[in-house]
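Note to self: keep these together.
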Amino acid sequence: MSILVINAGSSSIKYSIYVSATLELIDHGLIEEIANHHEGFELMRQQLQLHHIDIEHIDAIGHRVVHGGERFHEPTLINDDVLEEITALIPLAPLHNPANIEGIIAARAIAPKVPNFAIFDTAFHQSMPRHAYHYPLPHNLYTIHHVRRYGFHGTSHHYVAQKASEALEKPLNALNLITFHIGNGASACAIQNGKSIDTSMGMTPLEGLMMGSRCGSIDPSIIGYLSHATPMSIDEIETMLNKKSGLLAIGGSNDMRTLLNAKEKGDKNAILAIDMFVHSLKKQLGAYMAILTKVDAVVFTGGIGEHSPDIRQMVCEGLEHLGIKFDNGKNSGQNREIQDSSSMVKLLVIPTDEERQIAMYVQKLL
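Structure:
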């Protein structure tokens, strides 16, 4: 029997299917440029039939849902009431939750007897204490409009934390970790005794670290200033902050490999972009070392975190005063641990696998 994992985008469906008992990957794919999600599921059904899998007779379907608000703290069996609550959260994630919902509706229509589970990007961070998730704004903005830090990439942070636990041979609930999910989107998480106590992304994925095309944290008054000083509307400013900022705005590309190559050729904009990016990571690392007091390991994951030794080196070098001693030789190879033998803090490179983590959640619920 099988578990199907779905990540539904606005015009695409990314899927992976696993053996229920062993979580062996059977197949995965991406269906793009679909007119609607019902069409996408029909195309996926045909693909799964090549592996002799009937979608109507699998064990379960797990759906990635970006925003679970405060209501959802863990993976949840989807019924009509849950679907209605996810729909009510659309204002908090207008670019993502609608597509996730369409994927759920299509899955329930094509395989009505198969249980569907929602796995929320925000759920892992619901263990944050109040002083970490509240913003210093009038309290009614929280009570009425739900303005607070939610955090994202939770499935990835949880997955690599568990893998760190295995690598360090210590129970996750006995570990303090700083995890960096660094790709086109980037976030950090402070994990105390296995639970998220702070994360860099906020009410939306825009806050925090400098990213590929997102600005990360900036002075919020810049938005008001630009609305008066330029002809840009608020919507245009928001689009700029999300899609035309970050590495792309400073270095001319949101691809770190391109920027590193340009840096080697002396491109000043690429050098500035990389320096700014590394600076934001180092600041977050220092902040989380302060609130955790004791850190067992720093974990790098995501496209850049896993595949860019240069960025890992720039982030970790010069942190001996924090008990971090970096080994460039280990970093240059395919080693999981890249710290010097005398380092007080482990430095780990762990590939993330959000689809497998979703399957693991579903397997546990089954």
